[in-house]
Design goal:
Length: about 550
């Protein structure tokens, strides 16, 4: 047997430790692409360049069967789950907006009247959603969980930096977490924040907004990056039934992005949110933030959360099988290639870990499914199609309400709040009325499942949809009855949407790349809740409390 001196043995033992230390990331970059279905990485892959999505897929760990476990697959709950590893039953973000159960006034998931916006430009006009979008401040105070970023700050303090950058406020705020150093998002084509983070925009961001804001794109034309025949072959016709024209943009290419008006207006900024230049703005802002905040420059790990939301706007309006969605991802691929090249130059990709995922998927246009599978295979739950038969069922069971009480319930997301005044007047228990309302919903041909508050808060097991609904249920904020539409039945008059536990809404990418990641393709079913514990392990910080996911590697 060959003998080694004690010094040689010590050196040999140290080798694996040194190799492991070299893999420790200096910068973690978590990228959420709003409304990105996992199948897009397969469908559009032939048209990606080498340095974008392909760089991650070919050099990283691709978990191809990743799903959300919760039922309400919407933007805010998704972003709240990505880096906390918990669902709305813990973090409390039950939807993008919800009715307060005491006032029945609707509020935003990241609304906070005590944290006014900082850097909001003067309103150029009054347009739909303007008042709602900025009627109050923004912060993570409604979020009741703990993120990987929070754990990073707890371990390293100010030496670890945590930031969120996105088009949407909820994307930047909820991924970065309550302890973040900053969160920046766009209002009217420029980046803003709130007093929760700082009292004034930094000078560099004021300069950035002036030089790179959305106003520079007014009147530009969005057309396909590739030849039209490519989109026809992959996606079908450009003009598909069910698509929606929004904010002065036509159904088909090319699209002049001006809001349908001769000068810059609020409608223009809404139109800009549909155009791929929105993603470019977010990516360049991410680069600028890395530079000015010196992210990834030392051994203490930093975290940057980036949310791209233009894909959600395009997907809602035109559907996942549209030319617009394909072009958005082909262009985002090029944008990411440039961003990754910047990361390599500035930090070094060997010092970074990158995670790609999404906040939810999306349903196909019902008109497409009906054309393929028949008239009863899909549809639109719009107007009072659920409310009227449900109200009639309660009137039949308990008698009509008196004239001074106008309603049995209020519709809130995919559920109903019961009216306390109606219950008091009729001397009925909430559980009895909720059970009758559930019965009426289940009788509807477009409804797959429904559950009452009593069912969702009881300890006994439920079916698959019921358990998913439990994960989305926070009693102080959720409704008295929740329901799940059948597959391909959506709550939107045109375009499409998401928000159900069906596969097309839950199946999203999960791709890891960089320091500490072994490349490979994985087919086993994993969950988005696995991201937080896996990233916490790579960064060497404690698991967020109450996280139920597992470390994937």
């Amino acid at each position: 047997m060959r003998k080694y001196s004690p010094l040689v043995l010590l050196a040999l033992v140290a080798l694996p430790l040194q190799a492991e230390e070299k893999l420790a990331p200096r910068l973690a970059v978590v990228i959420s692409v709003d409304q990105m279905r996992a199948d897009y990485l397969v469908k559009f892959r032939p048209y990606f360049v080498a340095g974008g999505f392909k760089r991650l897929l070919e050099g990283g760990a691709d978990y191809q069967n990743c799903h959300y476990l919760h039922a309400v697959t919407k933007t805010a709950p998704g972003h709240a789950t990505i880096l906390s590893g918990v669902h709305a039953n813990v973090h409390g973000i039950v939807a993008n907006e919800w009715l307060d159960r005491t006032t029945f006034i609707q509020g935003n998931a990241v609304e906070d009247v005590d944290s006014p916006l900082v850097g909001l430009p003067p309103r150029v006009d009054r347009y739909p959603n303007a008042m709602f979008a900025a009627k109050a401040g923004r912060s993570p105070r409604n979020f009741l969980g703990t993120t990987v970023g929070d754990r990073l700050k707890a371990r390293y303090g100010a030496t670890a930096k945590v930031f969120g950058v996105a088009d949407k406020d909820r994307s930047a705020i909820l991924m970065a977490g309550p302890k973040a150093d900053g969160a920046y998002w766009t209002e009217e084509g420029r980046f803003v924040t709130s007093t929760y983070y700082r009292r004034a925009l930094p000078a560099w961001l004021e300069e950035f907004n002036t030089a790179r804001g959305a106003a520079q794109h007014f009147g530009q034309v969005w057309d396909r990056l590739l030849d039209k025949s490519v989109y026809d072959a992959v996606q079908g016709p450009d003009d598909a039934p069910g698509e929606q024209a929004e904010d002065g943009l036509p159904i088909t290419f090319p699209k002049k992005v001006d809001g349908g008006r001769p000068a810059i207006s609020g409608a223009y900024y809404n139109a800009f949110d549909h155009a791929p230049w929105n993603n470019d703005l977010v990516a360049v802002m991410g680069e600028r933030l890395i530079e000015v905040e010196h992210l990834g420059e030392d051994a203490t790990p930093d975290l940057l959360c980036i949310g791209f939301s233009q894909t959600d706007k395009a997907g809602h309006a035109y559907g996942p099988d549209s030319h617009e969605v394909m072009d958005s991802y082909v262009r985002l691929d090029r944008t990411l290639a440039e961003f990754f090249d910047y990361l390599d130059r500035k930090v070094g990709l060997k010092h970074c870990v990158i995670v790609l995922t999404a906040d939810h998927g999306v349903a196909p246009l019902p008109e497409k499914i009906r054309a393929e599978k028949g008239a009863t295979a899909a549809g639109r739950l719009v107007g009072r199609v659920l409310d009227e038969p449900a109200n009639a069922a309660l009137n039949a069971a308990f008698g009509p309400l008196p004239e001074n009480i106008a309603w049995w319930f209020l519709h809130d997301n995919s559920g109903y709040h019961l009216n306390p005044l109606a219950l008091h007047d009729k001397q009925l228990s909430a559980s009895l009325v909720a059970a009758k309302l559930r019965e009426a919903l289940l009788a509807h041909p477009m409804i797959a499942a429904a559950y009452t508050r009593e069912q969702l808060t009881a300890p006994g097991p439920l079916d698959e949809f019921g358990e998913a609904s439990r994960l989305s249920y926070f009693p102080a904020r959720s409704t008295d009855v929740v329901y799940i539409p059948k597959p391909y039945f959506i709550e939107r008059t045109l375009g499409t949407t998401h928000g159900t536990p069906h596969d097309y809404d839950t199946h999203v990418p999960q791709v890891w790349f960089g320091a500490g990641v072994k490349p490979g393709v994985h087919s086993e079913r994993v969950a988005v809740e696995d991201i937080a514990p896996t990233l916490a392990g790579l960064l060497g910080v404690d698991l967020p409390p109450e996280a139920k996911g597992r470390r994937l590697f």
